[in-house]
Amino acid sequence: MATNGIAVAAARRDVTARLGAACRRGVGPFPAPGLALTGTLDTWLADRPAVEAEDALRRALAEARRIDAHAGTTTVGPHRSDLAVTYLAKGMPADLGSTGEQKALLIAIVLANARLMAAEGGAPPLLLLDEVAAHLDAERRTALFQEVLATGSQAWMTGTDAATFAELGAAANHVRVVPDDTGGGVVVGAG
Fold first, then answer.
1. Separation between Cα atoms, residue 157 and residue 92, nearest integer Å
2. Cα–Cα distance measured from residue 69 to residue 43, given in angstroms and rounded to the nearest whole number
3. Could you tell me whether strands 82-87 and 33-38 are parallel, antiparallel, or unpaired per DSSP bridges?
4. Residue 98 in 3-state DSSP?
5. pLDDT tens string 19-78
6. Are 1 and 34 in contact (CB under 8 A)?
7. Residue 73 class from Cβ within 10 Å (0-12 exposed, 13-18 middle, 19+ buried)?
8. CA of 148: how far to CAs of 48, 128, 129, 165, in Å?
9. How many other CB atoms are there within 10 angstroms of residue 96's CB atom?
10. For residue 117, how many C-alpha atoms fall within 13 Å in the half-sphere facing its CB?
11. Nearest in space to 39 (alpha carbons), one of 98, 80, 87, 94
12. Domain extent listing, the chain
């Protein structure tokens, strides 16, 4: 368990570093987020070789067995890490930002991840973006659409106002979902 736990934490650390670099490059009007992993294993991997971190996890798991059995959960391991996001331009944790700032940071992370996956994996990802354009100003909405198109990703974007997606024009297939005449089910049609 210790070997696999450290392998998971090390792989996650590597992905976070690559994604963090992609995020720092930024996307148009979206703020550049900083990414860091916070957790005991992440601290161990930052200051010692993986073999020593594995030994430390093995000891910590053994020491916590009684507590874990009583709690019904494992209190140490890679599942205890969190992703900390920072609004770099303001030097503040993302969770202290406004809802709009948090949404812009999240979109920046999603777009950076799409670019990274396309570059490293050889194929763009499928993006599922629920209400992603809601409450974005025109500049950010345009930047979002341009970036999604530039990644070559197939993107499913939902919204309650068709006008929000009008600027995509023929670059998008628009589908409208409406209640049927009986009040049950839905009719799906191009719109």
1. 30
2. 25
3. antiparallel
4. coil
5. 999 999 988 899 999 999 999 999 999 999 999 999 999 999 999 999 999 999 999 999
6. no
7. exposed
8. 39, 11, 10, 13
9. 11
10. 15
11. 80
12. 1-122, 124-191
Both tokens of 32, joined, read 């550049």
CA distance 175 to 83: 35
Amino acid identity of 159? G
> What's the rounded Cα separation, in Å, for the pair 127 and 98?
25
Backbone angles phi, psi at 116, to 5 degrees: -65, -45
CATH homologous superfamily of 1-122 equals: RecF/RecN/SMC, N-terminal domain (1.20.1050.90)
Residues in the chain: 191
For residue 176, give both structure tokens. 């409208």
- List the alpha helices (DSSP H) in 75-158: 99-121, 138-151
Confidence of residue 144 (pLDDT cuts 50, 70, 90): very high
Buried residues in 122-153 as b, exposed as e (16+ CB within 10 A): eebbebebeebbeebeeebbbbbbebbeebeb
Q: What are the residues facing 37 on neighbouring strands? A: 83
The helix/strand/coil state of 31 is: coil
